[in-house]
């Protein structure tokens, strides 16, 4: 048995051969793989090395002998995701253009990826730590409302003639407030959890909305006015929800920090999501803060670069790692007027749309 997982695809990006190692790596049988599109294994666009890519941050490296090396998100049959290095060589057999790809599991390389994972978790928990005070406030509101409504319900029951209509309304409010509190808790739990990469089709608008709920109180407490311009029904991308939430959370908290010393009129952070030509979805977080010094445009993405007394300097470097692994791009620019804008562009995986999450 060849010691390396190998798949061969034809011009239509369909798998025509897979060795036993490849089948084992992805959790399929060889028979299941043959005839399947390569996008089954690499959901963000398959193994098509000719496709123009939005995120070329060292992801696609031409190597001699007409080979191309890519770092891609790969998906196993059980839905679990991992980062894979795919080295593809073209060859011509009986007039057919074939691509032979040797795959290795980057996440299995342990140390580097494990460390990144730990640091990412640390940074995520530290962002949530920053939010702790305002999240407690966010939870206090529904809890107080639940208490009031429960007290009112008890009065309705104790009254001589029970007002069923009002009693029902009080109970319904209790249920609604409970759902609100639960919503916030679930989002916190998802971010604190140390889970494996889980690739799925996602509406980026919904991912941004999840983060909007988490930062809502923090923005209020800091006197920052936020706006979220998110169209309905975006084309779906393929990605890991927690990683992408972490990226957006980081950009928003950085933007809040950037406007903290501004006069109230400039304590504004706008978030936009747009579908762009070329099969991309772009998220922009724009602030009216001090902007970025020209010489630090790229430096800010280096690990441990921080200008904040309590900063870890990990947020942007981890965010870029995540976005790059999604075949996307993360960059910053100064606005024409005040402040900076951070952009995340991710490739669309499919034209199926799912609308708002329930
Ligand atoms: P940290 O927030 O812990 O400093 P990050 O990696 O998230 O780590 O950010 C690195 C640095 O990039 C920040 O310390 C800051 O100097 C700069 N930066 C990030 N976002 C902005 C922004 N919106 N405006 C100005 N500077 C920013």
CATH domain topology of the largest domain: Heat Shock Protein 90
Which overall shape is indicated by the principal axes computed on the Cα atoms? globular
Low-confidence stretches: 51-65, 108-112
User: Number of folding domains?
Assistant: 3
Let me know the CATH homologous superfamily of the largest domain.
Histidine kinase-like ATPase, C-terminal domain
> In CATH, what is the class of the largest domain?
Alpha Beta
Major β-sheet, in short?
7 strands, mixed
| Assembly state of the chains shown | single chain
Order of helices and strands: EEHHEEEEHHEHEEHEEHEE
Termini separation: 47 Å
Note down, in words, how this protein is organized.
By secondary structure, the protein is an alpha+beta fold. It folds into 3 domains: about 5-110, Beta-Lactamase, CATH 3.30.450.20; about 110-130 and about 200-345, Histidine kinase-like ATPase, C-terminal domain (Heat Shock Protein 90), CATH 3.30.565.10; about 135-185. The protein is built from 7 helices and 13 strands. It has helices spanning about 20-25, 30-35, 110-160, 165-190, 205-220, 240-260, 315-325; strands at about 5-10, 15-20, 60-65, 65-75, 80-95, 95-105, 200, 225-230, 235-240, 270-275, 280-285, 330-335, 340-355. The strands form 2 sheets. Strands 7, 8, 9, 10, 11, 12 and 13 form a 7-stranded mixed β-sheet that branches. α3 (about 110-160) packs antiparallel against α4 and α3 crosses α5. Residues about 50-65 and about 110 have low confidence and may be disordered. Adenosine-5'-diphosphate (ADP) binds near residues 258, 305 and 308.
């Amino acid at each position: 048995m060849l010691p390396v997982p190998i798949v061969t695809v034809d011009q239509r990006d369909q798998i025509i051969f897979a060795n036993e190692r490849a089948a084992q790596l992805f959790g399929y049988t060889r028979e299941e793989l043959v005839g399947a599109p390569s996008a089954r294994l690499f959901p963000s666009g398959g193994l098509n090395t000719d496709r123009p890519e939005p995120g070329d941050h060292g992801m696609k490296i031409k190597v001699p002998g007409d080979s191309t090396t890519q770092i891609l998100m790969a998906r196993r049959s059980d839905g679990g995701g991992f980062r894979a290095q795919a080295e593809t060589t073209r060859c011509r057999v009986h007039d057919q253009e074939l691509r032979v790809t040797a795959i290795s599991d980057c996440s299995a390389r342990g140390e580097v990826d494990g460390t990144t994972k730990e640091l990412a978790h640390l940074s995520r928990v530290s962002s949530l730590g920053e939010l702790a005070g305002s999240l407690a406030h966010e939870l206090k509101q529904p809890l107080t409302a639940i208490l009031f409504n429960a007290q009112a319900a008890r009065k309705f029951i104790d009254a001589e003639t029970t007002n069923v209509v009002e009693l029902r309304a009080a109970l319904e409010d209790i249920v609604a407030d409970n759902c609100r509190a639960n919503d916030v808790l679930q989002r916190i739990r998802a971010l604190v959890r140390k889970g494996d990469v889980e690739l799925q089709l996602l509406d980026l608008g919904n991912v941004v909305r999840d983060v909007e709920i988490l930062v809502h109180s923090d923005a209020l407490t800091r006197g920052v006015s936020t706006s979220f311009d998110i169209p309905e029904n975006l084309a779906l991308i393929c990605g890991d929800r927690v990683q992408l939430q972490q990226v957006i959370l980081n950009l928003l908290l950085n933007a809040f920090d950037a406007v903290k010393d501004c006069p109230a009129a400039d304590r504004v952070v706008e978030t936009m999501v747009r579908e762009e030509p070329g099969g991309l979805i772009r998220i922009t977080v724009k602030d009216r803060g001090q902007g970025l010094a020209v010489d630090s445009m790229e430096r800010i993405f280096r690990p441990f670069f921080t200008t904040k007394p309590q900063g870890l300097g990990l947020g942007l470097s981890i965010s870029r790692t995540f976005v790059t692994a999604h075949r996307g791009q993360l960059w910053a620019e100064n606005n024409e007027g005040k402040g900076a804008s951070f952009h995340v562009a991710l490739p669309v995986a499919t034209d199926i749309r799912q609308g708002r999450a329930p």
